[in-house]
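From the thread on structure requests for the teaching lab: each student submitted one protein with a one-line request. Submission from student K.M.:

"Model Hydrogenase from Dyella telluris, tokens only."
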Amino acid sequence: MQAPDFLRGEVRVTGHRQGDDLLSAGLGQSGLGAEPSSIAHPLRPTPAELRRRAIQSSWQGIADLGPLGGYGRVYGAVPDVPGREYQAFAWIPGAQSPHRVLVQVPDHFGPAHRCLVVTASSGSRGIYGAIALAGAWGLPRGCAVAYTDKGAGSGYFDPADDTGVALDGTRARRGSATLEFEPPRASAQGGIGIKHLHSGDNPEADWGRHVLQAAQFGLAMLDRAFPELAPFTAQNTRIIATGLSNGGGAVLQAAGLDDGHLLAGVVALEPNVLVPGQGRALFDYATEASIWLPCALADARFDSTPMARTPQGEVPPSWVQRCHQLHERGLLSAAHLAGQAAEAHERLRASGWTDEVMATAASTTALDLWRAITAGYASAYMRRGPDEMPCGFRYGGSGAIDPVIRASWWTDASGIPPGQGVGLSGGMDHSADASLPGALCLRTLWEDKDASTQALRDGVAATTVKQPRASLPLWVVHGADDGLLPASFTSEPYVAWLRAGGGRPLYWKVPGAQHFDAFLAIPGFGDRHVPLLPYGYAALDRLWAHLYEGAPWPVRVPTPAPRSRGTGTLTREALDLPATWTPGPV
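Reply posted by the TA:
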């Protein structure tokens, strides 16, 4: 059967059975939560080894698989799901780089309830970046699952040896294979090329198109998998879109572009979504947080906040320096730390940050994620290459990249450095607060009205969503304590905008939930917060019942209790979860 015209090159088809399934690559839940799966020859990993490790890394980045997390006991499951995978490179018209698309077709695909789940990776992760949400929910039900990396992913390009990542995940030299990302030629001393950040495409502006192409690819691959049941269309196959974080924003973008009525329903978790003229753009509040949160978190009200103090109970010295440097630059008036921290705290409160959100954002601040996000996204929005990033930033190693680490970038990297041997340099000085100049420079890109910085604001504006059709069943689930993508800047303006336009979206603002379920294993974190993933599964359950059984939309928002209020381990009652389905074929 003819492949969609947006594909270039081969469609790679692989079977996964007998110890190598679709959902866990044969690792099962215990293996998914263990140390990275082994590679026999680390310099020459096989496609099967890379796939297994990529799936494991994606699970660990999204789900709380630890002994206190309750996964597989309170919610979720990792059954053995045999089947086939279809993978290819797809192209948006005018794009310089492709996005990956992959379809998992379980052997027990349910022809009586034709179902295709379409999803986009969270963050900037690789192609399996939503498997813990879309795959874990859809595959046991007998649904096929279509993924896109939405123009991001971990197919890093290293100019030192002129290699990138081929379709099967192995590294290949420029010109020897079609690569996931291939920047213009640079010197061997050029910066590491990251597709999301350096493709010149501003992928975020096309996330919705990536998702719709993945849905079309899914239908086409179902035609190949089951020719006796073809054609598969949106009229005879229900397509459910779901995603988390950036993936959640991607499915909401797709909903607004779905003029052909491909989508039957949408569930978006903690979406990075920007409404025209409402809410706040990620680059806006992230650059603000990068400057002010280190000082604000020095306030005494955060003394018991996880990751806001050193093991000795002190404010981190770099945060003390941030307050001092802001005072030295005339941005804070108080002469002493307590007053400076109080000023920074009030500044953030005035711009929409709550104490609960700031407390959770201590983790993002302590891990220096604001700098990683803002430096990278500035390059993406301004369509800059690896060696022309704004504010002097650059990605590279302290020396030559370890070839063993480079061989597994596709499996282990998150899609935005630093990490896996790739550092973020530039935007620094030699002061006691070396990262402040870069943070202020990035903030200036947003606040300036100079023509030289207009490209950034134009790039952000291109990411705004459009309203979906009012009849589309749509559900937004967001953690009330999300410190990375605060609901008041993202989901709440979006839901209000839809309702004002005649839509009837459901909105669950889950008390105690925050952005990173994987952080719940951090000491103190799981005692304060609950996982968000089970509420995504519950929303998808209800959407299924609505689409296939005509069940009414629920309205009650769960009111969970974190572990510290109970026995130390999660229970279904503590999560206040509604009745659930039993995983298995339909």
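TA comment: Residues 581-586 have pLDDT under 50 and may be disordered. The chain has two domains: 1-152+190-281+465-586, 296-401+413-461.
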